[in-house]
Amino acid sequence: xxxxxxxxxxxxxxxxxxxxxxxxxxxxxxxxxxxxxxxxxxxxxxxxxxxxxxxxxxxxxxxxxxxxxxxxxxxxxxxxxxxxxxxxxxxxxxxxxxxxxxxxxxxxxxxxxxxxxxxxxxxxxxxxxxxxxxxxxxxxxxxxxxxxxxxxxxxxxxxxxxxxxxxxxxxxxxxxxxxxxxxxxxxxxxxxxxxxxxxxxxxxxxxxxxxxxxxxxxxxxxxxxxxxxxxxxxxxxxxxxxxxxxxxxxxxxxxxxxxxxxxxxxxxxxxxxxxxxxxxxxxxxxxxxxxxxxxxxxxxxxxxxxxxxxxxxxxxxxxxxxxxxxxxxxxxxxxxxxxxxxxxxxxxxxxxxxxxxxxxxxxxxxxxxxxxxxxxxxxxxxxxxxxxxxxxxxxxxxxxxxxxxxxxxxxxxxxxxxxxxxxxxxxxxxxxxxxxxxxxxxxxxxxxxxxxxxxxxxxxxxxxxxxxxxxxxxxxxxxxxxxxxxxxxxxxxxxxxxxxxxxxxxxxxxxxxxxxxxxxxxxxxxxxxxxxxxxxxxxxxxxxxxxxxxxxxxxxxxxxxxxxxxxxxxxxx
Length: 573
Fold this sequence. Notes:
FAD/NAD(P)-binding domain, Flavocytochrome C3, Chain A, domain 1, 3 domains, 7-stranded mixed β-sheet, 5-stranded antiparallel β-sheet, 18 helices
């Protein structure tokens, strides 16, 4: 390891991840105090990284006319079966439209009607022309004069007595090892895909809904640092257009397409009105679709046969802003949406704090349980349905708190022994010799099979029970040990080694959360066959966890659910 080039960097704020939350935070910090040194680290390239890389066609968290931040909180609470961090959701809701205005100021095209108002697509959604949204957000971060390290993988946080000191990282292209000393750190890496076996296999295995490059690193570095995590058991399973995994919102909301089964029956209204019909929570809409298939009335579709020729063509053009593959699919088949309605299915489970609520346990200023360590966006827990605009708001909130405190934060020491240990851990897989070598792709496939078979994957209709989860726990612990034999012939494969290690650490925490909640609160997301009922009397509370890296044990912590404090509503501006 003596030939590894190292570089020590000192900064005021280190931002890990250059998605919406990270870029908004960089912009706000430099706006409030241009003299502060801000460094953004991005595994890919800031211009097209993360889940926004291909673009979006809507802002899905927005206070539309007739709604308020208070009604937004109630909407999110109902959709999440009564259990959310209402304080976090409210502070997001207060600034959703402001974050959207910032995006428009930076150059995002937002179509308007004759009165100058955005076109409303759904209850809390407006239409945008967002194919270039990621370069637009990235340019705002660049213009702020924040420093940027692209193609650099963060491997671990550095802490000292439950206080953040910085992070370790390595360059994927040059192999340089970075020791970054920071007064504050914001984790904004996004959630975790690839933990479960995907819908599509073989060469199409990366044709998934969530970015395949969001590997849970932001969760994993916090887990290993001992930060408290929340609600991992509320996985996110998205209803998507089959095979392509394209979003359904443009069809369901944009052209008012109804869900129908193979006989053309509108099954939500006909069979599931007691669950809320058209207004039922998101997870139950998918659950109803799953039941139709189980009971032999599938496949299910979004009924677009009512569209005119012109409407069908507009829908095809609409998807070019986000998922052009669907438009190409219709074109290749020589059909249109009004002739060939899209079939719908569920994805494999993900951990996504912006759609569900798995992530760091944070305060309203977005600080985690480690001092001066913040989390925002998909990696921050407790506040579902924040989406792109809500992630941006969390970046703004964290930035303001950091700026207000940073002058009083002293630099923390980083010990040489910790540096040497991390260099050995990070690069030890590189060109390792030995008969027990494992390639990262091999270990990833084994991990995904364990999770699919025993932890409620798509092959098991997402259903969980205690004995299978206990077996998953045992097998994942074995895979954690086997990961010591990972082998990387080059830096790209070394990155993949650390990605699968991160996914295993995240999966182990997920299993413990799924085991602990002995009820079914979010069908499909968290369906317990052995505890099939929702139980507000005993389980209207948060399941949190803290990992003890020395003992290699995960401790569960219960946290009380608290309704929104009316005083908070008065003080938040």
